[in-house]
Structure formats: structure tokens, C-alpha cells
């Protein structure tokens, strides 16, 4: 074996050791929260959340059901049904992106359709080099991180989190008084190489901040990020450009149209009901990926009540190396990230002595107090 081959093998073995160490650390960290309820007396400088009465979203009415008469339609690249699996600590998710069927779809790294109920959840865990978008559809989710940020997502709320160079946070379903579960979506988005070491940041987007377009009597669109039927969303939610729409139809045969930039990858995930796209029927929990051969997506509801998200993101021309929640572009940079996390440096200074207060659970009463602080 040549010296160069020996060095290459040595580097691969070192990376494997780091990966195994990382998995052991995360497993130990999660198990410790299940076994013990720690009295965390650490003083945290929390970012206050403005207390406001939850209001309905602003409603716009759009008379024309067509966005463009000359729209070229994208064809289907791939599709399949997301299968339920276990994730985190006792949580159940239907993962579509981030599986063997679709490892990644640049800039998207993972999509989970989650259903969780205490004591299940996602206690303290790290991220690097990516952004996460959490869309809470039912129940309540509390979050807290080692920068001092905290908050609560109510039904219809979203959170845009940029991990950047490093963050450790906890995402825990609130123990609701009526005993119901929490449901929603979480999307992982890659960051451009030049932004992977940016400072972490959060943006909680309340339901009232996302405009709804009443296209006609049978079609409503929540414009979370982007522009749909002439209505723009709140701007500057994420560093990587992402367009995110929630379509709601109430009658079989309702036609929808959505334009996207040519340099965006686009997919649909069906929450309820079924759709007809390119003369093919797709049922609940189906994910449909599109080619970049058109200016938009067109389809028709195939059931009386159908809900789906239609999401697109700017294609990133870069390599992706991913170990769990750590995302980089090459082995050298990934080894540096592991070292930073192991030694608590370069963004992870608080990683090994910070414990969230919500990791062992949070009641609905405490969550509502948290929201008012």
C-alpha cells in the first residue's frame, strides 16, 4: 500500500471514530434526560416574546384562478409514500427527504411529518451548517437553546432556525390539558458554503403574520414564504431562498397553479386527501418531486378535502457531507466541526455545560407563561 493510500485510510478511520463518538454523545445525552429531572439553576438571558392576542391570518381574495396563461408545467421526477418510523426520543415521524428513496434534494436535507406526545420529543441536541423550518399544525411545541432564545409555537405558527456555526437546542411537545398530540412538519435546509459558520439566529413566524389568499370558494393558500396569486409573504425568513405554501381545497376537482424560479427544486407533500398531477393520482402522505423543466406546478384535488404543502428551494451547487445534524461540504471541514463540538470551541462553548429547562417536559400552563414572558 502506498503512503498516499495509507494516509487516506487513516483519515477515513479517524472520521469514523469521530462519528461513532458523536453518536454515543447524543445517545448518552438523550438517555440522561429520560432518567433524571435536573434542577437546572443556570441563569439564562431569554429573549422575550411579545404577548399579543392570537388573531386570524389576513385574508386576500383573488378572482383569477390562473397565475399565468402561458405557464410551462414541470414534469414529475420521482414519487413515493412516506413510511412512519421512530425518531428522537419516542417520537413518530414520516420521513420523505433524508431516506434511501430520496437522500437529499438540494437544498433540502430532510422532511419529517411528525406526530409526538409527551414524554416523547427532541431533547438537547446540536446542529451545524444548516437551517430548520418547523411548521406546527396541531398542539404546541416549546423550544429553547443555549444562546438564551426560547418560545412556544401554537397551531399555524412556524419557526425558522439558522444553526450556522453551531447551536444546541431542545424541541419538546407541550403536555396539553386535553391530552391531545402535537403534529407538524420539520424541514432541514442546507446553507451555502460561505454561510455555514454564520451566527445562529431564530425567527418565530406567527399564524397571523402569514397571509392567506382566498383564490375562490374552494381554494385557499397560506403564503408562508414566497409569492402566490399576487400576494407576498414576510421577507428575509431564511438565508437559503425557500418558497413555502400551504394549499387547502374543499372540493374535488379544484385546480391549483404555482410558479417557481427555474433554478429552484420543487416538491409536494400531501397532508390530507389526494391530488391529480400529470394525470396520476397521489394519496395522503405521498411526496412528489419535480424536474426543473418548467416554470411552475399545476394539479387538481382528487378528494373533497385536500391539504398539501408545495415547497421550492434554490439549488445549491456544492457538495454535501452530512453526519446527523452536522452538515458540511468536505471531510476536512467536517472533522473541524466534530473537534469544535468535542472541545466546546468555535461556537460550541456552551455545549457541554448547558441544559435546557424543558428537556424533561413542559405543561400547557408553563408553556403559556413562557409565551407571555
From TrEMBL:
Origin species, per record, is Zygosaccharomyces mellis
> Which protein family is it in?
Belongs to the pirin family.
In terms of InterPro entries, this protein maps to: Pirin, Pirin_C_dom, Pirin_N_dom, RmlC-like_jellyroll, RmlC_Cupin_sf
Against Gene3D superfamilies, the record matches this protein to:
Jelly Rolls
Q: What are the TM regions of this chain, as residue ranges?
A: 12-36
Output the CDD domains linked to this UniProt entry: cupin_pirin_C (cd02247), cupin_pirin_N (cd02909)
Can you say what this protein is called?
Pirin-like protein
- Reply yes or no: does the keyword Nuclease apply: no
Q: Provide the organism lineage as a comma list.
A: Eukaryota, Fungi, Dikarya, Ascomycota, Saccharomycotina
- Domain called Pirin N-terminal: residue spans: 91-189
One Pfam match, given by its short name, reads Pirin_C
Residue stretches making up the Pirin C-terminal domain: 249-345
Q: What are the record keywords, sorted?
A: Membrane, Transmembrane, Transmembrane helix
